[in-house]
Amino acid sequence: MALRFHNGVCIMDFKAFDLVRQMAASHYLVRSLHVVAELGIADGIGEDATPIADIARRSGSNVDAISRALRLLSSRGIFEVSASTIRHTAASRFLRSDDPASLRPLVRMFGQTVQWQTAGNLKHSIITGDPAITQDDGGLWGYFARNPADARVFDAAMAAKASVQISDLLASHDFSQYRRVVDVGGGQGHFLRAVIERHQQVIGVLFDLPSVIAGAPQGNERLELVGGDFFEADLPAGDAVVMMEVLHDWNDEDCDKILQGARRAMAPESRLIIVEIELHTGNDPEWPKLLDIVMLGVFAARQRTNDEYRAMLTRNGFAVTSQISTPGELTVVTAQLTEADLGNHLDAR
Fold this sequence. Notes:
CATH superfamily of the largest domain: Vaccinia Virus protein VP39
Order of helices and strands: EEHHEHHEEHHHHHEHEHEEHEHHEEH
Helix content: 40-55%
Low-confidence stretches: 345-349
CATH topology of the largest domain: Rossmann fold
Structural class: alpha/beta
Strand content: 15-25%
Number of strands: 12
Distance between the termini: 70 Å
CATH architecture of the largest domain: 3-Layer(aba) Sandwich
Shape: globular
CATH class of the largest domain: Alpha Beta
Mean pLDDT: 91
Radius of gyration: 23 Å
């Protein structure tokens, strides 16, 4: 029981009580973070204490209201508010636009209307297992097609996220062993550009939807751009096929279809490289558990454990050759065709 009595006096675990109470209203906490990121508050704070009145004037905010929002964030370690001034903390520096690992685009993305609507409809997903975003008008991608400004924020968020993940990936896998690297669902090509910049012998092939490829930067003769739908079109061949945070967007049935397409595109010497954020089975309050619910609401998809990725690859005709957990929470799974598939390829020759 939450309440118990001792000598007629009610005794309550106030810490537990406060945990539930604060979580119940925490959408106001995260919304304060979204607004502060949208207004670019962190960019106006220098190395020294900055008057909050100056911050309010620069951002067009009410000085009392912004002070209260910043006080709330400061209580969680984001900014340090003292009297009428504000300083940066290690956490708040990630909200600066010029930070090499800036999280401002990601925070702005999670503050978009579509994300709030998805969270508001989460009951539907939990009851049915279906997406909380209506699929009648194209789901998330349809929303971005109708809201290009939000789409640009999303692209910026993915680029910012990739800048951190790419260094983690390149440190954990040797791409110098490949001649032709195919990035499936690679967006704007941030990963491939980093690979071909580091390894001069590598040809990169970026494969994504035609609408995505149309917006990808051009001008690199060692980067080929190929538009297509991996549920319908054949994937380009390569001696390395990379899928970086692709499978977590899909349910198991669709992942099987994607992996079957990769298998058809691979030669006996090819390698499939799956890069995802690893879900752990423990009870720590880690990011992948929260991201898992985001994937449920947005796509009816999921984060997965290393064992689940291994099982998925095995049932689709792949043999896992290595599985590396990086310091940045990524799991990098390398696989090749099974012996049966290798034999089929050789017979076809």
